[in-house]
UniProtKB/TrEMBL annotation:
Keywords: DNA-binding, Transcription, Transcription regulation. Pfam families: MarR. The keyword DNA-binding applies. It comes from the Bacteria. One of its GO terms (molecular function) is DNA-binding transcription factor activity. Residues 6-138 form the HTH marR-type domain. InterPro entries: HTH_MarR-typ, Tscrpt_reg_MarR-type_CS, WH-like_DNA-bd_sf, WH_DNA-bd_sf. The keyword DNA-binding applies. This is MarR family transcriptional regulator. PROSITE patterns: HTH_MARR_1 (PS01117), HTH_MARR_2 (PS50995). SMART domains: HTH_MARR (SM00347).
Length: 144
């Protein structure tokens, strides 16, 4: 019975993830962006300047693909590369004034979509979901 419940939980989790992903893609595209572009610019908007590796780890995009996304965002004047004074091998990515202005406009709208998604879910339920997903995620990492 437990195995059956695990399988059912997995299927529901995957369906929920797909539904959420489609909703978020639709929201982001309504602002004229692709999900990968939004993820990168949101990372530097929220956390400040970061290395390409830090951004890659945060948004789960491999470094080869992320360079293309950063190039595109840089060409549009939304982010810029800044050399590290202490280590010439390190290059930081930071948001520009134009990028910050854009995110100041669209991020609150994006956040409202996420809030609507969790409407009717109590804080306690959100904490439980967080704990369970972290536990499952750690187990998945261990089994890889």
């Amino acid at each position: 019975m437990s195995d059956n419940l695990s399988l059912k939980t997995f299927v529901v989790l995957m369906k929920a993830a797909k539904s959420i992903e489609e909703l978020i893609k639709k929201d982001i595209s309504s602002h004229g962006m692709k999900s990968s572009d939004f993820a990168v610019i949101e990372a530097v908007y929220s956390k400040g300047r970061q290395t390409i590796r830090q951004i890659s780890e945060a948004v789960l995009i491999n470094t080869g693909s992320i360079t293309y996304v950063i190039d595109k965002l840089e060409n549009n004047g939304l982010v810029e590369r800044v050399d590290c004074k202490e280590d010439r091998r390190v290059v930081y990515i930071q948001i520009t004034d134009k990028g910050k202005k854009l995110m100041d406009e669209i991020f609150p709208k994006h956040q409202q979509v996420i809030e609507a998604l969790f409407e009717g879910v109590t804080s306690e339920e959100k904490e439980i979901v967080l704990d369970v997903l972290k536990k499952v995620g750690r187990k998945g990492e261990a089994l890889r």
